[in-house]
Each structure stands twice: as structure tokens, then as C-alpha cells.
Design brief:
This protein is an all-beta fold and about 110 residues long. It has no helices and ten strands. The strands form three sheets. The protein has a four-stranded antiparallel β-sheet with strand order 3-4-5-6, with no helix packed on it. A hairpin with a 2-residue loop joins strand 1 and strand 2. It is globular and about 35 Å long.
Length: about 110
């Protein structure tokens, strides 16, 4: 896992507990420290996953957080107001979803 900014490569991070692609990612702050979050995605061609992992910056390992309510891949993700929002995505049946979910560091909630 690597972290990038607009100028390019910033640093290598610890490996996640579950490999994934086509996932959502974002960040929030907990007690002034940035926490990176990855959610959903897929581990092979057509099998989306619902798991969520987070890494506190400066930490040495990703930890499991509350999973998404359903497996999703190809979603859009926005970090705003210290929450992470997932918009849309495809479910396990390859149906396009129109919901919006928010993660507050503890739980995913459908907000739209």
C-alpha cells in the first residue's frame, strides 16, 4: 500500500489485512490524528466485499472496522466534515446502487 499526494509518492504503508481493488478510500481525524479508511471493493473479477479497514497515521497495522451494510465495488468516495461518504457503487449482482452512506469512525449509516 502506498500513499500519494499531488506531487507524487509520499510513503509506503503497512499491507492491509485483505487485498482489494476498486474500493473506496478516505480519511477522518480522531483526537487530532489522521485515520485512513478503505471500504468495499473486490478481491477478484466479480466478487465485491463489504469489509472496512482503518490505519491511524503512524500506526504499524490496519485494523478491521465496521463493515459496509452490503458488498460494494466501484463506488465514489468523499471525505468531508470528518466523515467519509460512499456514493453509489455496484453490488454483488452487478446492480448499480444509488444510495449514500456515511462513516463517522464507528459505523456506516445510510444518509441518502
Amino acid at each position: 500500500v502506498a500513499r500519494y499526494n499531488l506531487q507524487g509518492h509520499v510513503e509506503n504503508l503497512p499491507e492491509m489485512t485483505q487485498g482489494r481493488m476498486d474500493h473506496g478510500c478516505g480519511s477522518y481525524y480522531s483526537d487530532g490524528t489522521m485515520v485512513l479508511v478503505v471500504a468495499g471493493g473486490r478481491f477478484d473479477a466479480y466478487n465485491p466485499i463489504s469489509s472496512t479497514e482503518q490505519l491511524t497515521m503512524g500506526g504499524t497495522a490496519w485494523t478491521t472496522a465496521k463493515s459496509l451494510p452490503r458488498a460494494l465495488m466501484y463506488m465514489a468516495t468523499v471525505s468531508m466534515n470528518n466523515q467519509i461518504y460512499i456514493l453509489g457503487g455496484w453490488d454483488a449482482d452487478l446492480d448499480a446502487m444509488a444510495e449514500i452512506m456515511a462513516f463517522d469512525g464507528e459505523d456506516w449509516k445510510e444518509v441518502g
